[in-house]
Design a protein that fits this description.
This protein is an alpha/beta fold and about 350 residues long. The protein folds into two domains: about 140 residues; about 160 residues, Rossmann fold (3-Layer(aba) Sandwich), CATH 3.40.50. Strands 3-4-5-2-6 form a five-stranded parallel sheet. α4 crosses α5 and α5 runs parallel beside α6. The longest helix is centred in the last third of the chain and has 17 residues. The radius of gyration is 21 Å and the shape is globular. The chain starts with 7 loop residues before the first strand and ends with a helix. About 40% of the residues are buried. About 10% of the residues have low confidence.
């Protein structure tokens, strides 16, 4: 068997990755950048007390802490113990460390069977295995961590709420992140009122923890996404290709290619890459293409693959109409991540 290519230039448009159900299951672990995430390495911002408060609650949820016993007199009443919900739901803006905290739960919880994946990964796995086989796979799991719980269509709502509804009675604990409170999922995107019962059923499984703050990526950066001219781009790609595997694609070609690859396979599109090169970036006006790009950016950010680009700055890749619509938070998160990756 020929050795895998580790240096040089490839085109993402030449890749048509295939991912099996077994591969999807094996990938349900925190992304590499959060391999070592712990509660100790989460730096709560003193200006936003909700961050430290959420951290302390999550340590207890993970089994890493408990309230100290209280001494009581012989005839004193025991304090009322509030029932705990099987799940925690981290609601907050992008860049406040929700995924870091989610990965910390995963690493801290002494669980025999635990899974960590994005919302897209779970729904794709259900699609690959079939609903009943997915239920059998996850039944009895100690913990499911679900990153970026965002419902983009009614089908996803039904699948995930019913899946979680079957797992919780068996003792499965849940931890999820989102930019939207669970009772507002789907708002502005589809007829959420038609699925209110399913959404409320899911919401009842979670204790919502609000995490306020400002985007840590923007705190660390100054200005917009980096744009290269053609000459600088050519040099950057050549330099990166000398020591690693680099992709080089026209932006329009990549966007068209993403429509032919299921989002669950985007992680395989960038497998082994040290740098992503995008030529002639333009502002997108098609919502479906924009949402596919968001999913691609999420995978590139998880893998921490730098991006080099020409054309329109990548923080201006989504049209104004999109930024004012129901997917606004998703686009803003993607912009934040694109900005960071062009500075990497």
């Amino acid at each position: 068997m020929a050795a895998a290519v580790t240096t040089g230039v490839i085109h993402l448009t030449d890749r048509t990755p295939d991912v099996s159900g077994a591969d999807m299951v094996a990938a349900l672990v925190p992304p590499p950048q959060f391999d070592g995430a712990t509660f100790e390495t989460y730096r709560a911002d003193d200006a936003y007390p909700s961050q430290q408060a959420a951290k302390e609650k999550l340590i207890a949820f993970s089994g890493g802490g408990a309230a100290a016993p209280v001494r009581r007199g012989l005839f004193s009443k025991a304090p009322k113990i509030e029932p705990t919900k099987p799940g925690v739901y981290l609601d907050g803006g992008f860049g406040v460390g929700k995924t870091h905290l989610l990965a910390s739960i995963y690493h801290a919880m002494p669980a025999r069977r635990k899974y960590f994946g994005s919302f897209i990964e779970y729904t794709a796995l259900v699609g690959a295995l079939g609903y009943q086989k997915a239920v059998e796979l996850f039944r009895g799991a100690d913990l499911l961590c679900i990153d970026e719980f965002e419902l983009d269509d009614p089908g996803d709502t039904m699948v995930m709420t019913r899946l979680l509804g079957e797992l919780v009675p068996g003792g499965t604990r849940l931890a999820a992140t989102s930019n939207t409170p669970p009772n507002a999922l789907g708002e502005g995107r589809f007829a959420a009122q038609d699925f209110l019962r399913e959404i409320n059923a899911m919401s009842a499984s979670f204790e919502t923890l609000r995490i306020d703050g400002v985007d840590f990526r923007q705190r660390a950066l100054d200005g917009h996404a980096v744009v290269l001219d053609d000459e600088a781009y050519t040099v950057a790609i050549a330099d990166a290709a000398a020591s690693g595997l680099v992709s080089d694609d026209a932006f329009g070609d990549l966007v068209a290619h993403l429509a032919r690859v299921h989002p669950s396979r985007y992680i395989r599109l960038i497998d082994g890459l040290a740098t992503i090169g995008l030529r002639d970036v333009v502002t997108l006006e098609d919502q479906s293409a924009a949402l596919r790009l968001v999913a691609f950016v999420d995978r590139a950010y998880d893998a921490q693959v730098p991006i080099r680009a020409t054309g329109v700055a990548l923080d201006r890749v989504f049209g104004e109409d999109m930024l004012g619509g129901g997917y606004r938070k998703k686009y803003l998160r993607a912009i934040s991540r694109l900005n960071a990756l062009t500075h990497s």
